[in-house]
Fold this sequence. Notes:
Layout: E1 4-7, H1 11-24, E2 27-33, H2 40-44, E3 47-52, H3 63-73, E4 77-79, H4 89-97, E5 101-102, H5 107-114, H6 116-125, H7 141-151, E6 155-159, E7 169-171, H8 177-192, E8 197-201, E9 207-216, E10 221-233, E11 236-242, H9 249-265, E12 269-278, E13 284-290, H10 297-304, H11 308-316, E14 333-340, E15 342-343, E16 349-350, E17 353-354, E18 357-359, E19 366-370, E20 377-378, E21 385-393, H12 396-409, E22 411-413, H13 419-426, H14 429-433, H15 440-444
Parallel strand pairs: 1-2, 1-4, 2-3, 4-5
Antiparallel strand pairs: 6-7, 6-8, 9-10, 9-12, 10-11, 11-14, 12-13, 14-21, 15-16, 17-20, 18-22, 19-21
Amino acid sequence: MIHKVLIANRGEIALRIIRACRELGIATVAVYSEADKDSLHVRFADEAVCIGPPSPAESYLNIPRLMAAAEITGADGIHPGYGFLAENAKFAEVVESSGINFIGPTSEMIAKMGDKIFAKNMMRAAGVPVIPGSDGGVSDEKEAVRLASSIGFPIILKAAAGGGGRGMRIVRDAAGLSKAFQSAKTEAMNAFGNPTLYMERYFENPRHIEVQLLGDGRGGVIALGERECSIQRKHQKLLEESPSPAVDEILRGKMIEASLAGARAVNYKSAGTIEFLLDPDGGFYFMEMNTRIQVEHPVTELVYGIDLLKEQIDVAGGGSLNETHSALRPRGHAIECRINAEDPYHNFRPVPGTITSFHVPGGFGIRVDTHAYAQYRVPPFYDSLLAKIISHARTRSEALNQMVRALDEFIIEGVPTTIPFHKQVLMHPEFIKGNFDTTFLETFHIQPEQ
C-alpha cells in the first residue's frame, strides 16, 4: 500500500492524479517550477515543493531535485504522469533504487519497450502482426537503399530511441532516400541522443488505433477496447474517441487478442497501450507500446466505467487486478477534444498569455479535465494543453452532438484556442460518417472559419 505520492508532473494530469489519490486516501506532494507557483495542482495537493526555475531541464526534468523533494516529504510513491520523465528508464531506475514505488512499469520494461527495434522484434515473436521493415537498426545509406528496395517504396524512417514525429521521414522513391536518411539521423541524435534509425513500409492512408492495457506484473493483464486516434497534426493527436467507427466486433477481438499476447510476452505491469496502424483493407500492424498513462485515457474510463489512475496506483502498491475487470464491456461512445492554447489560423502556433475569462461547459455526459482558470497565465515553457473535454453518450451521433454543444459553451478569452478547429472537424460530413484516417486534415483542408 502506498501512503504518499509525489507527482512528478504539472497541469491537468497532476490534478487528475491528486483526485485519484485523494479518493484512495493517499496523501499527495506537488512539485512545481517558479512559473507554476499559482497552478491549481500546487493548491490542491497536501504538500508542495518548488523544484527550480521555469526551464523544464532545471525543474520537471531534473531527477536529483525530484528525488530530493520525495526524500524531504517522505513520499513512498512517485507518479510521472505523461510526458517529461514518464517513459524515462533512468528515472524509473533511480526511483526503484531509492526504495520508492514507481507508479508505472519497471525501469527494465520501459527501457526494452522504449527501444522500438527491440519492441518490434519481441511483438513479432509473440505473434503480433508487425509492419514489414528492418529487423534492426539501419547502419548506413547503402543498407538503407538495399532494404528499401526489398520492402518497396514508400518507406518511413523512424528514430529507434523515441517518437512524436522526431527523427521521422517519409521517402517515396530512391532519389530522396539519402537526404532523408541523413536529416532523420541528425534529428534523432539531437532529440534522443541516439542516431539509430529503423525502416518500415509506409502506409498511405492508415488509421491510428490503440488498445488500452492494464497489467499487474503477476500474469494478470486485461485489454479495455480500442481508441481511435487518427485526427492528428504532424503526428500529434488532437481528438480521440472510443470505440473506433472503423472497428467491428470481429476486428476488435483480433486486436485485443494480439494486444494481450504482446503484454503477456513482457509480463506487463501498470497502465499502457499498444498502438497499431490499421490499413484500408482491415489489416493491423504493431507500431509501438506506450509504457505510461495516455493523455486520452478518459475516453476509455467513461466507456468502460473504470478509473485507470486508481488501478495504476493500486498495482504499483502491490495489488492485483480485480478478476471482474476482464468482464467489462463497452457502454456507449466517448469523444475527447484537446483544447490547446494555440492559434489554429496560424499553423497552430502556441500562444502563451493570460486567460481573462474562463467558463467550463457542463450538462449530461460532459467531463472536463483542466488546470486552467480565469486570470491563469499560460506559461511559454511547457506543452500548450489547457483542457480536455470529453463527451459520453449512448451512440456516436449523440456524443458528437453533445461535444459540439459543449464546445459552444466553453468560453476561453485572452488566448486563442483550438476550440474552433474542433468544431470544424466534428461538423465535417466525412468525420460524421466515420470516413477519415491520419491524413484527414490535409485531405479535406480543415481550416477554422474566422
